[in-house]
Specification:
Elements (H helix, E strand, L loop, with lengths): L1 E4 L6 E9 L6 E5 L6 H19 L6 H24 L8 H6 L1 H17 L28
Helix pairs in contact: 1-2
The protein binds zinc ion (ZN).
């Protein structure tokens, strides 16, 4: 787990956690928070106060509109960053899409692997080890009930 902490305070600036891809089993890092953190909200509040002071030279109630706009845009970028970090850069597996539509997730992986085979920057990355599907051999009853 990699946490980037502020030097003077015990505040987590950006939390990324290490995990393994469910498809290719390569270790990667994903953003753990889907929504804005408290530190982000405080930062956007300070930025909106600064912008409000620069525009009107005093604290103005119209600054609340700027705060709302910053929070809205910040939340969108935060969720886009989280969503992008969910997709494996090695094989293109998207666990969020897999939960919604496994067929579409499989097509995305196939499309990514074709794209990857044509690009030279993927030559030094670890090879994708496709999962092996275990199928019971014919004639063998694997049921525990007999
Ligand atoms: Zn992967």
């Amino acid at each position: 787990m990699a946490n980037y902490k502020c030097m003077f305070f015990n505040i987590k600036l950006a939390e990324r956690k290490s995990c393994y891809c469910a498809f290719c089993k390569v270790q990667r890092k994903v953003h753990s928070s889907k929504n804005l953190t408290l530190l982000s909200v405080v930062g956007l509040l300070g930025l909106s106060l600064l912008v409000t002071y620069i525009i009107w030279q005093t604290l103005d109630p119209r600054g609340l509109f700027i705060l709302g706009l910053f929070l809205f845009v910040g939340e969108i970028f935060h969720q886009l960053r989280w969503r992008q970090s969910m997709i494996c850069s090695n094989c293109g597996f998207d666990p969020v899409l897999y939960l919604k539509d496994p067929e579409k997730a499989g097509l995305k992986i196939k499309e990514f692997l074709e794209y990857r085979s044509e690009r030279p920057e993927y030559l030094l990355k670890p090879p994708v080890q496709l999962p092996v599907r275990k199928v019971a051999a014919k004639g063998h009853n694997i049921s525990l009930r007999g």
